[in-house]
Amino acid sequence: MYPIGFIKKAHGIKGEIVLVHEEGAPPEMHGLFFFKSSRGDYEPVRIEAIRPNGRPGSGMFFVLFSGITNRSEAETLQGLVLYSSTEPEAIAQPDEEEVYMQELHSCEGYQIEDAANGISGYIIDVMETPAHPVFEIQLPSALLLVPVVDAYISTIDHEEQQVSAQNLDAFFDTEES
């Protein structure tokens, strides 16, 4: 038997539980699974429904098992380990570039500001190019394509949903007549 995760607690009144999955990613939940009983043998259980609980990658899921129909029944499962009879497949971990691109894509909708030059707008898209990612920025009177490089992007604050930029004036025609 292979451990899949453990039951953290009951959730709601319809028999759902919170499953903490060992790998953090949603487990493949088809077929029979097992709990180890107090006698030491394995009792089978089927999963009826599973959905994420919280942030992606948190490893926590709301699970509804067949035959568990109320909170009292769900509470009896608290602390038990869920097992599978088949070895879980190795989950490919994203490489650094994939993680970086996911982080950049999460910037869509963030405000971007070049305070030194008085330029402010919103990131409406993140484009992937062979050289480097590019922010598509909507300004009040223009659309800018700005490479995500240190020369233009200073900091990204995900908590405040704010991007600090510099040198964005370089993208405007500054010819003197």
Automatic annotation (TrEMBL):
GO terms for cellular component: cytoplasm; ribosome. Its main location: cytoplasm. Coiled coil: none annotated. Signal peptide: none annotated. Gene3D superfamilies: PRC-barrel domain, RimM. Residues 108-163 form the Ribosome maturation factor RimM PRC barrel domain. GO terms for biological process: ribosomal small subunit biogenesis; rRNA processing. It comes from the Bacteria. Keywords: Chaperone, Cytoplasm, Ribosome biogenesis, rRNA processing. GO terms for molecular function: ribosome binding. Residues 4-85 form the RimM N-terminal domain. It is found in: Cytoplasm. The PRC barrel domain binds ribosomal protein uS19. Binds ribosomal protein uS19. PANTHER family: RIBOSOME MATURATION FACTOR RIMM. Belongs to the RimM family. An accessory protein needed during the final step in the assembly of 30S ribosomal subunit, possibly for assembly of the head region. Essential for efficient processing of 16S rRNA. May be needed both before and after RbfA during the maturation of 16S rRNA. It has affinity for free ribosomal 30S subunits but not for 70S ribosomes. This is Ribosome maturation factor RimM. It comes from Cyclonatronum proteinivorum.
